[in-house]
Amino acid sequence: EEELLFTTPVSPVDFTLRKLRPIGGSPSFHLNNRRRLENEEIKRPLSSTRIVQALIMEELDKSEESIQAILLDLIINRELKLSNVRYNVPKPFFLIVAVLPHDFDRRTVNSQLMDRFFISYQFEEEMFENYSSSSNPLNRPSMTRRQALMKQDEIKSLLEKAKKVYVHIDISRYVRDIVVGIRTHPRVRGGVTARSSQDLVTVTKSLAAIFERNFLTPDLVSIATEKVFSHRLRILAINERDDQMEREDMDSNYAFDIVAEILHIVNVPI
């Protein structure tokens, strides 16, 4: 059986493209040298390398736009080309975990990239620090492979069970009312995407499969709503005067408050 493999945390700087311009070189030399290298890379066949199944990234909010664009391209196209090497996304899944502080500035992360993250989870900083320490090769005995937390057969089994989960019409309306409530909230900028609505249903079905249920219940929907929407919302600050320009509020706690407010307002099916 294939195992789920993990890597030590990496920073977006690890994806920085190699600089082609030599130190002290002239701009003309840089352009000519770059053209020559590009021609050589076209002639050379691309070597294929598989990316690890689980990738943990820190300080995504401090990365440059080009780095975030590379990551978004990797998620969408399922492969990454750097120089003459093609990095293929493993099957049947590819997991990216972005570790961000509670008070990170949401404006620093591309909204399309953030929308591609399936769910979010809040945890104490010490929890990740302990993991980072144990993940350091200097702090653990040498080993060739780690013991898998979940087998791929278990993941495939959960996937099949999730597909068979029954969704009652009242639950569908409940999900729709939640999405509409969040989308039309006066402090939510730009609403929510269709992808997030689909992800809400998928996460809820997955939770049902984990709890060994073959149908959806309102409590599962409420649990999934915060995990799916809280990291995607762009919150507008409250204007003290009518003539103020609209601006985003950097406090991420407001997103949780808005989700909780909508869950409290929407009628729960019996």
Automatic annotation (TrEMBL):
One of this protein's Pfam families, by short name? AAA_lid_2
Q: Which residues form the ChlI/MoxR AAA lid domain?
A: 183-248
Q: Annotated Gene Ontology MF terms?
A: magnesium chelatase activity
Q: Which InterPro entries match?
A: ChlI/MoxR_AAA_lid, Nucleic_acid_metab_PIN/TRAM, P-loop_NTPase
**Pathway(s):** Porphyrin-containing compound metabolism
Q: Which SUPFAM superfamilies match?
A: P-loop containing nucleoside triphosphate hydrolases
Positions of transmembrane segments: none
Which EC numbers does the record give?
6.6.1.1
The record, for PANTHER family, names: AAA FAMILY ATPASE (PTHR11603), C2H2-TYPE DOMAIN-CONTAINING PROTEIN (PTHR11603:SF132)
The entry's protein name is: magnesium chelatase
Organism for this UniProt entry: Rhizopus stolonifer (Rhizopus nigricans)
